[in-house]
Design a protein that fits this description.
The protein folds into two domains: about 20-60; about 75-125, no CATH class. Helices cover about 35% and strands about 10% of the residues. It contains four helices and two strands, in the order αααββα. It has helices at about 20-30, 40-45, 50-60, 115-125, and strands spanning about 95-100, 105-110. A two-stranded antiparallel sheet has the order 1-2.
Length: about 130
């Protein structure tokens, strides 16, 4: 026996989905990929669902929205200089490491502990 007495209300036709141009998608994705950009803020400003902008980013990186113009990663320049005590053994040599990123300069002198160096680099490079 059916105990559901609620009337069935037929739904009307759905409205049209918004269709965004490829240029619009690329522009928003390139703005979202800028350092310090907020995807949620960009989505709100353009009346979009945040998940839609994230999916456009995924398509952009896969090359489905045209050629990718934002580099995925930037490489840092490395300069290798000859040690002044090249003839001494490694145990006797107290080296130095200088790391320059933007306006930050980090200089480590003496023997660098690998664990400590990894922690410092993780903090500086994030």
């Amino acid at each position: 026996m059916d105990t559901n007495f609620d009337p069935v209300i037929p739904r009307g036709p759905r409205g049209k989905y918004r269709q965004h141009s490829l240029e619009f998608k690329r522009t928003l994705v390139e703005l979202a990929l800028q350092p310090g950009a907020s995807v949620s803020r960009l989505a709100r400003e353009h009346n979009l669902n945040t998940n839609l902008l994230f999916s456009w980013r995924k398509l952009y990186r896969a090359g489905c929205l045209g050629p990718v113009s934002v580099p995925a990663a930037a490489l840092l320049p490395v300069v290798v200089a000859a040690s002044p005590a090249a003839s001494a053994s490694q145990a006797d040599v107290a080296g130095s490491i200088t790391l320059e990123i933007g306006q930050v300069r980090l200089r480590i002198e003496g023997q660098a502990d690998a664990t400590t160096l990894a922690q410092v680099l993780a903090l500086v490079l994030r």
